[in-house]
Write a structure and sequence with these properties.
By secondary structure, the chain is of the alpha/beta class. Helix content is about 40%, strand content about 20%. The chain folds into two domains: about 270 residues, Aldehyde Dehydrogenase, Chain A, domain 1, CATH 3.40.605; about 190 residues, Aldehyde Dehydrogenase, Chain A, domain 2. The protein is globular and about 75 Å long. The N and C termini lie far apart (about 70 Å). The chain binds nicotinamide-adenine-dinucleotide. The site of nicotinamide-adenine-dinucleotide has 21 residues, from helix 7 and helix 8.
Length: about 475
């Protein structure tokens, strides 16, 4: 039914040195799917030794050979989409169709990096000094990486980090979420089958704070890549600063959606509902604050509410399910708290606002209208199936609202005016902007935030560059 839960250390599948175990739950029924080993200090030391030992060999491996292995793994994953998707739905809750699609995208990411790894180009720079024969910049793998991934995209997020690091010639240790371990394990098994040398990729689980502290403090680790919440990202960045280590931080957001009067309200509402409730809203680039120009406001709220009400919520393995449960009990409590707070402050509850049933972490798709700015849901990243919708009058007012928070990950706007489109694209203080679109994450495009949403990009050529160090070499004549 579910996958075998183990760690990969130095090419060997293991339950580790200790006997502690963590339970993995099915969020649709709260049943235990399996028990996950916990990496103890001894395991962490072995893992560090493994990447230290593997780094030079992998960096020296021809890009063409690295490409062959990554492409091979992508093909193996493509043959296992049903199984990988099913495991993801069991542990994370998302509908099976969404899960299989994610598994396919994970394979595409590995394949994209496989190809791009051959193009880690440097630059020849014409000298300005007469004594200099050659000046050049070369890119080198930055060295062993420690990567940490969360529970909302168990395949895509590990694939970005594993693909980028391996293509660039870096060995890595990844600690996926203990709540959703199967995706990263599937990638690791595919890479192993495709011929990845031992020690180049290591997968461990355990107590997140203990593991990150231990790995980041080690001289062996040269680069940290984290996806998760802003507070944890700041904490890990502080730890990395002690060793002046490079970081990529892909953190939370609070995605504004600005709907101007000139669009088809029905179409914009349909796209917004699909975007909002994907993965039950547990997406870092989820649209989370809807600002709708006043003429269209009433119609948009009505259309959005009607479509949200019609969503079929259920076990992700059941045919027809459009939204699964929340991934864990923490999210259920957090969402309920945000909705109650908004209603207490005067927001109008249009639909939802309650847990569904008492087994599994199901929460009804929720729409809140006329939500005041001081409501928590307008300020804290909701990370769940709740959509606050607020009216606005002018372009400047909408921009002020969109840019008001310290986050800057994704921002969206709907307009059919070329001028408004260009202006809003420039005005949004976010690393990702979707204009008449919620599709902002592709293997070939950069993905990352501004402000407190993080630092650096994953995906695209920027995602490879994140694992490369820049070296300048100058050469003069004989001495
Ligand atoms: P959390 O802040 O406890 O954890 C977020 C992630 O960081 C988890 O995967 C966790 O395992 C990991 N983590 C926590 N402490 C760590 C540490 N000291 N070292 C290494 N990793 C550590 O919150 P949560 O309840 O799991 O998730 C809730 C919040 O996290 C959401 O509100 C959302 O803002 C954020 N989140 C963001 C993303 C994203 O894609 N950017 C994904 C998941 C969660």
């Amino acid at each position: 039914m579910y996958t075998e839960l183990e760690m990969l250390i130095d090419g060997a599948w293991t339950l580790g040195a200790g006997s502690r175990r963590l339970q993995v739950l099915n969020p649709a029924n709260e049943q235990v799917l399996g028990e996950l080993p916990v990496a103890e200090r001894e395991d962490l030391e072995r893992t560090l030794a493994a990447v230290a030992g593997a780094q030079a060999g992998w960096a020296a491996t021809l890009p063409k050979e690295r490409c062959r292995i990554l492409r091979g793994a992508a093909e193996i994953m493509r043959g296992q989409l049903d199984e990988i998707g099913r495991h993801m739905t069991l542990e994370q809750g998302k509908p099976l169709g969404e899960a299989k699609m994610e598994a396919a995208v994970g394979a595409d990411i590995l394949e994209w990096y496989a190809e791009e790894g051959k193009r880690a180009y440097g630059r020849v720079i014409p000298p300005s000094m007469p004594t200099v024969l050659h000046q050049m910049m070369v890119k080198e793998p930055v060295g062993p990486v420690a990567a940490f991934t969360p529970w909302n995209f168990p395949v895509v997020t590990p694939a970005r980090k594993i693909g980028g690091a391996l293509a660039a010639g870096c060995a890595l240790i990844i600690k996926p979420s203990e709540e959703t371990p199967a995706g990263a394990l599937a990638i690791a098994r595919a890479l192993e089958e495709a011929g990845l040398p031992k020690g180049v990729l290591n997968v461990i689980f355990g107590i997140p704070a203990k593991i990150s502290e231990h790995l980041i403090a080690s001289d062996i680790i040269k680069k940290i890549s984290f996806t998760g919440s802003v507070p944890v990202g700041k904490h890990l960045t502080r730890l990395a600063a002690d060793g002046m280590k490079r970081v990529t931080m892909e953190l939370g957001g609070h995605g504004p959606v600005i709907v101007f009067d000139d669009v088809d309200v029905e179409k914009a509402a349909a796209m917004s509902v699909a975007g909002k409730f994907r993965n039950a809203g547990q997406v870092c680039v989820s649209p989370t604050r809807f600002f709708v120009q006043e003429k269209s406001y009433g119609d948009f709220v009505d259309a959005f509410t009607q479509k949200a009400k019609a969503l079929k919520v259920g076990d992700g393995l059941e045919a027809g399910t459009q939204m699964g449960p929340l991934a864990n009990a923490r999210r259920l409590d957090a969402i309920d708290g945000l909705v109650r707070d908004a209603v207490e402050r005067g927001a109008k509850l249009k639909t939802g606002g309650e847990r569904i049933g008492n087994s599994g972490f199901f929460y009804a798709p929720t729409v809140l209208a006329e939500v005041p700015d001081d409501a928590k849901v307008m300020n804290d990243e909701p990370f769940g199936p709740v959509a606050p919708i607020v009216p606005f009058k002018t372009f400047d007012e909408a921009v002020h609202q969109a840019n008001r928070l310290p986050f800057g990950l994704a921002g969206y706007a709907f307009t059919n005016s070329a001028e408004t489109s260009a202006k809003i694209g420039a005005a949004l203080q976010t690393g990702l902007v979707g204009l008449n679109s919620f599709t902002i994450s592709m293997p070939e495009t950069p993905f990352g935030g501004m402000k407190e949403s993080g630092y650096g990009s994953e995906g695209g050529i920027e995602g490879l560059d994140a694992y490369l160090a820049t070296k300048f070499i100058t050469q003069s004549g004989a001495v």
